[in-house]
Structure formats: structure tokens, C-alpha cells
């Protein structure tokens, strides 16, 4: 159970006072000022609760907590403020950025009671999210299993496009990467309505007549209706529905949506799927990118540019799995690295971290007391 608390203030004496007061109730970390607070949240988090002063040099507490919220949305945020800052702070609470507002000086019993409330809120939020994730994961798994049984060749496309899709999603700062990836996995649900002969023509990149095109463009709507029946999957359903939409407004569905009004996930999916079809028919990757780029109005130019970057990046790296003792400086963690301490699962390191001697030594030392999941997925530069 996460009981980590980050205390942020530019007053060292006040930080020390909070540390003495709360040390028996939580695992505490202190940061002197907003910049140090953001760095601590990124380096030592996730925290269950962040308690911050409002008036600090360089960046106020509201703006700092907003940054921390972006990286750790489950973290409960508490703001301390003087009476002079009260109006601004109340506005921040009303906007939903702050869980609780405390005025200085704050009595010890009030601080302890608020911390207990914050822990309860954090437990509720994380429990709801975990339940939702398990429910959604189970629903997605059932649908994927169904597709793989009914249309195994079509479902094979999903595993091929996911590395490209994830790379493009990261480069474009996709605000909902989980929705984009889930939509990619469910994008072929509607293919169960299509005859194999039509699917074969699409996969071979052959032209469709008007009747075939109309039938094919109907599959996203069918898939979106199925996906939309799963609670809280509206965003995923929208991506599935618009996966054949052209950037300039053509394709399907036939509506007025175009350009950046098309869900970003759908724009990414359209490009990577068509890219995969070109590769499956023998085209080289660089030629396929050129082909997409020449289809003016079909794809989002930013997506095609990001895809080209992903291809270049993939050419410079190789993905492999190694055990801890085989880790070497320069390798990059490809997946979040977790460990097990008793019944508790611990995030040891987030994906994207580059290994150096210090990090490797840290993992080897901790492997004596923590069961670390192995082998470790890493990306290694070629050459």
C-alpha cells in the first residue's frame, strides 16, 4: 500500500517541522522549492500525496501540482496557503486541481486528519482504476481471442503494427496512448462481417469496386458499435470508427469531420495499417514511407513524418531480452521493470531509462531482497 508523501516548501524549517510531525504516519520525502518538488516527484514517485506551499519563488504551488498531476494523475494534491493567496488557491480547488486547501498556520491535528483523508481518497482512486483496468483488459482479451479464432490472418496484422503505432504515439505526445493501442487491437473486429475474398483484396492492396468499397468502409462502424458497448470505451470506439477516415475528409464515415478533428489515434492507425499492407506486399520500408507521403490528403503529414522517424530509429536499435547479469551500459529499458517484495509489486524503473553502471549495480543489489522480473526487455544500439 502506497503511503509515500512528498512535502514541498521553500522554508526549510517548516519542512523539518512537518517531517517530525508526520514521520510516523507516512514515508516522507522533502523538496525545497517547486523545481526540486517536480524533480523529486519524477525521480522518487509515484507518491500517494503531495503537500505543497502556494507561495514559492520561481513557480507557485498550484502550477507545480499541475505539472505533477500530468505525470502522476492518481497522486492526491494538498495545498498550503496564506490568507493573501486564498482567492487564487480557492480557484485552483474549484478547477479540480487540488484535493484539499489548508491555510497557514495549520494545526498538527488538522494536518494529520487531512493526510488520513488523502490516503483514503488515494486508495479509492487507485482501487477503482485497477478494477476498471482489469475489467477493460478482460473485455478486450475476449474480443481479441474471438478475432484471432475467426480471422487469424487478419489478427496477425495487429502484432505487426503495434511497435510502429507505439512509436508514433510517443513522438506525437498522444494524450491517450492506451486508447490508441487498444483501438489498434480491436480495429479488425468489424472484419468478421467481411468475406475472405474482400479481405484478401484489401490485404493485397488491390483496387475495390464501388460495392466492395462500400462494404469494406462499413466494417469500422460495426466494430465501433461492439466496442462502444464496453463501459468507458467511448474514446476507443471513436478511433475504431474513424480508422478509415482520410485527413482531408474522404473515406469513412461520411461526415464533416476532417483534419485534426479526426481522433489522433485514428490518424495514427490509418497510416500504420496502410504502411503494413505495403510492407506485406514486398515494398521496402523507405519506399513505403514515400508512397504514404505522396498520397496527399489521405494521411496526417505529422503522423507520416513521425512514422518515418520511428523507422529510422528501429534501424539503429535491436530489441532483446537479457538477465540482470547481462545488462550493459547504453542499453535502454523497453518495458517498465517491476519487482515483487512479499505480496507487494514494486515499480523499480520506468521504461525508457538508459542503463549505466550505477543503475545496474542498484538492480543487482536489490535483487538480493526483491524478486525482479526477468528476463529484462531492453533496446540496444546496433554497431
UniProtKB/TrEMBL annotation:
Protein name, entry field: Response regulator c-di-GMP phosphodiesterase, RpfG family, contains REC and HD-GYP domains
The keyword Phosphoprotein is annotated on this UniProt entry: yes
Range of residues in the leader sequence: none
GO biological process terms held by the UniProt record: phosphorelay signal transduction system
UniProt keyword terms in alphabetical order: Phosphoprotein
Keyword Phosphoprotein (UniProt): yes
Domain Response regulatory: 4-119
Amino acid at each position: 500500500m502506497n503511503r509515500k508523501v512528498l512535502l514541498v516548501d521553500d522554508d526549510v524549517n517548516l519542512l523539518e517541522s512537518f517531517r517530525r510531525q508526520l514521520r510516523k504516519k507516512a514515508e516522507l520525502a522533502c523538496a525545497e522549492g517547486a523545481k526540486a518538488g517536480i524533480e523529486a516527484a519524477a525521480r522518487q514517485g509515484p507518491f500517494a500525496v503531495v503537500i505543497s506551499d502556494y507561495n514559492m519563488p520561481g513557480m507557485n504551488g498550484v502550477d507545480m501540482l499541475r505539472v505533477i498531476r500530468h505525470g502522476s494523475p492518481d497522486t492526491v494534491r494538498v495545498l498550503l496557503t496564506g490568507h493573501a493567496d486564498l482567492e487564487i488557491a480557492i480557484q485552483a480547488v474549484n478547477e479540480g486541481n487540488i484535493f484539499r486547501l489548508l491555510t497557514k498556520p495549520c494545526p498538527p491535528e488538522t494536518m494529520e486528519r487531512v493526510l488520513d483523508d488523502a490516503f483514503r481518497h488515494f486508495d479509492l482512486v487507485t482501487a477503482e482504476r485497477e478494477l476498471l483496468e482489469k475489467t477493460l483488459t478482460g473485455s478486450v482479451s475476449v474480443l481479441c481471442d474471438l478475432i484471432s479464432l475467426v480471422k487469424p490472418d487478419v489478427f496477425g496484422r495487429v502484432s505487426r503494427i503495434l511497435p510502429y503505432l507505439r512509436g508514433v504515439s510517443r513522438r506525437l505526445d498522444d494524450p491517450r496512448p492506451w486508447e490508441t493501442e487498444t483501438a489498434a487491437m480491436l480495429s479488425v473486429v468489424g472484419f468478421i462481417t467481411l468475406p475472405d475474398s474482400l479481405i484478401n483484396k484489401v490485404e493485397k492492396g488491390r483496387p475495390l469496386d464501388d460495392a466492395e468499397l462500400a462494404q469494406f468502409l462499413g466494417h469500422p462502424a460495426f466494430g465501433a458499435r461492439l466496442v462502444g458497448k464496453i463501459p468507458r470505451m467511448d474514446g476507443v470506439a471513436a478511433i475504431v470508427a474513424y480508422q478509415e477516415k482520410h485527413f482531408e475528409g474522404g473515406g469513412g464515415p461520411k461526415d464533416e469531420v476532417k483534419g485534426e478533428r479526426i481522433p489522433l489515434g485514428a490518424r495514427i492507425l490509418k497510416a500504420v495499417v496502410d504502411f503494413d499492407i505495403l510492407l506485406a506486399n514486398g515494398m521496402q520500408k523507405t519506399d513505403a514511407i514515400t508512397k504514404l507521403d505522396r498520397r496527399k490528403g489521405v494521411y496526417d503529414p505529422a503522423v507520416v513524418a513521425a512514422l518515418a522517424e520511428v523507422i529510422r530509429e528501429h534501424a539503429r536499435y535491436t530489441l532483446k531480452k537479457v538477465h540482470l547479469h547481462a545488462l550493459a551500459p547504453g542499453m535502454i529499458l523497453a518495458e517498465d521493470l517491476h519487482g515483487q517484495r512479499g505480496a507487494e509489486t514494486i515499480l523499480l524503473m520506468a521504461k525508457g531509462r538508459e542503463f549505466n553502471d550505477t543503475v545496474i549495480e542498484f538492480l543487482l543489489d536489490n535483487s538480493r531482497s526483491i524478486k525482479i522480473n526477468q528476463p529484462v526487455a531492453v533496446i540496444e544500439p546496433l554497431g
